[in-house]
Amino acid sequence: xxxxxxxxxxxxxxxxxxxxxxxxxxxxxxxxxxxxxxxxxxxxxxxxxxxxxxxxxxxxxxxxxxxxxxxxxxxxxxxxxxxxxxxxxxxxxxxxxxxxxxxxxxxxxxxxxxxxxxxxxxxxxxxxxxxxxxxxxxxxxxxxxxxxxxxxxxxxxxxxxxxxxxxxxxxxxxxxxxxxxxxxxxxxxxxxxxxxxxxxxxxxxxxxxxxxxxxxxxxxxxxxxxxxxxxxxxxxxxxxxxxxxxxxxxxxxxxxxxxxxxxxxxxxxxxxxxxxxxxxxxxxxxxxxxxxxxxxxxxxxxxxxxxxxxxxxxxxxxxxxxxxxxxxxxxxxxxxxxxxxxxxxxxxxxxxxxxxxxxxxxxxxxxxxxxxxxxxxxxxxxxxxxxxxxxxxxxxxxxxxxxxxxxxxxxxxxxxxxxxxxxxxxxxxxxxxxxxxxxxxxxxxxxxxxxxxxxxxxxxxxxxxxxxxxxxxxxxxxxxxxxxxxxxxxxxxxxxxxxxxxxxxxxxxxxxxxxxxxxxxxxxxxxxxxxxxxxx
Amino acid sequence: xxxxxxxxxxxxxxxxxxxxxxxxxxxxxxxxxxxxxxxxxxxxxxxxxxxxxxxxxxxxxxxxxxxxxxxxxxxxxxxxxxxxxxxxxxxxxxxxxxxxxxxxxxxxxxxxxxxxxxxxxxxxxxxxxxxxxxxxxxxxxxxxxxxxxxxxxxxxxxxxxxxxxxxxxxxxxxxxxxxxxxxxxxxxxxxxxxxxxxxxxxxxxxxxxxxxxxxxxxxxxxxxxxxxxxxxxxxxxxxxxxxxxxxxxxxxxxxxxxxxxxxxxxxxxxxxxxxxxxxxxxxxxxxxxxxxxxxxxxxxxxxxxxxxxxxxxxxxxxxxxxxxxxxxxxxxxxxxxxxxxxxxxxxxxxxxxxxxxxxxxxxxxxxxxxxxxxxxxxxxxxxxxxxxxxxxxxxxxxxxxxxxxxxxxxxxxxxxxx
Lengths: 536, 418
Fold this sequence. Notes:
The structure holds 2 protein chains of 2 kinds. Chain A is α+β, with helices and mostly antiparallel strands. Chain A contains 20 helices and 20 strands. Chain A has helices spanning 6-16, 25-29, 57-70, 120-128, 145-149, 158-161, 164-167, 186-189, 203-206, 263-276, 289-294, 298-312, 330-347, 358-363, 388-404, 442-458, 470-474, 481-492, 508-511, 515-535; strands at residues 21-22, 50-52, 74-77, 93-96, 103-106, 111-114, 132-133, 168-174, 180-183, 218-225, 227-228, 237-240, 243-246, 253-260, 281-285, 318-325, 350-353, 376-386, 418-422, 427-437. The radius of gyration of chain B is 21 Å and the shape is globular.
């Protein structure tokens, strides 16, 4: 990897200080690959040329401006994991935001202001002390609150907390060219309490179904809503690694596994719970997760799973996880529990009390990475948002595709997948997972991913997964939205420097800044700078 | 121990960052939410387990050269194993063994260990202790009747630090064993257990010391070994079989396990109150890393399944409860817990050769731990390892706190003196 010209490096160094910048290849190596979807979403990765750790928004701005002046690609990273953040362009600068880790909670007005390196475990830990909480994503509580809110922001608690777009308040955003933009209340009174500000609401640009993955600048601060929870404190932990949990007072918090003989019954049950507007959590969990959660190792997982799968003879039940929280009183728990039982009886499903320690995994998911346990890698697909019926349609259709790849994919016996309802079932998220060998099945997984997206397009599912090269597949079927994204990209990031080729990979004309071209541009800028300084 | 043997482990790090944080379920505040001293201090991801996996991968694939930075990255780690245990909450990988193997590889390449390590290794080779003190001084504090005792039931392996620098721990341990009626022996030809040497990757020298100690103990015909040092304890219990490739045939115990047993059996009875509010610091080598070594020779098959099935050491069965139980049983003692405890404990900063080579890092790590201890309102920090005591004590004093090894409090509660 070629070094960044000294002039530019020293300029960057002057922004953060020599302690917080490096171009040492050994240190840069640790930023050269992706997380989830390893060897899939980080294909074509290269080692970045430089890593820089800004400590404040002003430093981020200055870095981005330097990158624009010299046409250097940059990628913001924070807590990582699900990352479309692997560098693929020469001379890329990684902007590691971990020094920006401030968290403020406004208890009275129930919101938190976070910087990029605050994760959900930290936020919910501190919020619980004040009788507040927010959703935590199923990918794990290590996820950055800020980054995850720019994405879908899904998780167990979305039944009540809703989609991420409803939880974002004011935002501080360093645009791809380095200009600072405040959204919502922060735009006029430097207070983050509200998401609306004068003029149009630009939150639709800063976030999205799959977000911009750092492809539209760097969001440096965001206010997110918190919600009341009938508990205040630090829950006592039960167990020791790897089986830990915490419970919350049973008078106010109850957990249930609802065993449904068929997917259709599960959907009917969820619909009725939705109509009754009860519960704090209501989601369908893939059956194999019961094994993933409890297995002490990979071999045990496969052993127990294969044994039980054979016993079930293809009749894998649908499990719906429900939580009832007494937000207002203990009587609320009693009432909702009665309603839940009535619904279960009417639908013909069985409600079983679940472990009270489910509270821990709900508020601070710690076992999520076990998704890698079956085979070393896994992928989620579909990611459709619509209704319960739609979820069944896309998952069942997807299952036919997935079936064709079993083996080599693990046969998890699932005809569906994750079904998460937002806002009491107002809209519904569907995700189909497949587990495969991290070494041998990557090509097969990539093939399946594209087939599943094409299946979405064929059955006119709404709207179908989109990222990276998949925009090219889905765009023409959906009003050429990718062209609109290209225009947005060109407007905000004319040099296509913010995490290229992300935001929209179809910007081919700019997405590859060739080494020679870049060097010429760079040199001419340096010469110009020198001339300017000499003259002044 | 070839790095290539760990290719699967290195390549299957999923960059989830579990290695950087305490178990989310156990997290009690944002302030004390991190678990890796190295990553917390040096910030760049390469100073985390995830980053070191990337370096290992880079070296194996010849994408990286062996440079000074590789040495810096590999050795600025206390080898506390927190990353290993946090990773294993979800995955079947061996991160700590990768870190150990990286150091061995650096030594094989003629690059490691670091100068301060080389100096103490040289001293250990000459004088059998890392301080370069005369060997005779090692047992000069031991009453004659305990030296090479013929009717011994138990060997007390004292260790370098307790023999030369933390005599209070050594004397207290011997007194406790004697008071409980144990026929205990201290061997005059005890050498360094090899822990500080193996920990920095010098396998060859460590092996010499280990073979000597093992042969010495076996010659006595006694198979019970007790230590008061968590480092020696883990070395005998875990690393001796791992490195030598066979069971040692020894029953290895830490003194706290014995004390716990003696109290249950009535062999020790407290007679004095020790009026003190204390907090307990879990030594990494007594806590999360102390599960017995499990031999496994096999291969990864499809889906990464191990053949034959491997049993994993995940830190579940570390020595967490005995010290707490013992502390609670001391009259007058009030035990208050820090936020990061047991498998989630923050390292004292002394391990992995850090105290010798990177003094500032060791002190910074200790300061962080003492700040956590101070928040509990405790008057004193108690631990079960002279290395932890040595590194934590100055920072504890600065914070107006006392620092004890558990054996010292036991002596007080027994109404004894050493």
